Amino acid sequence: NAGVTQTPKFRILKIGQSMTLQCTQDMNHNYMYWYRQDPGMGLKLIYYSVGAGITDKGEVPNGYNVSRSTTEDFPLRLELAAPSQTSVYFCASSNYRPGTVTDTQYFGPGTRLTVL
Amino acid sequence: TQLLEQSPQFLSIQEGENLTVYCNSSSVFSSLQWYRQEPGEGPVLLVTVVTGGEVKKLKRLTFQFGDARKDSSLHITAAQTGDTGLYLCAGAYGNQFYFGTGTSLTVIP
Fold it and tell me: How far apart are CA B42 and CA B88, in angstroms?
């Protein structure tokens, strides 16, 4: 099992450009999450999904969009990139609803994005 | 937004010392998780606690969930250099996890 994979690992964007961050998990997990982490800080939830075809906003969704057409894939779209979106982006997956003793989130290695 | 505040923000100690990290909120969470994150990597789960007052031990690490399920602590006994990293707490609320601000621990040999 590869677990959670993310591509690309690094990316530099110019202001106003768009891009898609890819996330794939091979554990057949229902729950998937996108977080951003600013330097020295905790993680902020951008969007999450409880299954294919179902997505919802997290704490900081502005400037981002997601889709979940399959169980495995959960891409994050940045439209009109801004310097405030410079961050490290983590994708995670879990097979259980948050709040249960087995609600382990498995994280990908992250994508480091710089917007100049 | 459910806020989780961690203290201290930074901690530098000598190998062999004990330490405690705190995670506090005014919100009630369904569960509370602790993660450790190494530089350049994603967080890795250490423990999940779900019952108020629960205490879990993982070798030299002891985790406690407050009676009211609003706060938690992580105690490390006899710290080792391998404990160095960013420690994050995360509370489950509805279908979401809310992460704390993080505690950066450095253990000096």
Answer: 11
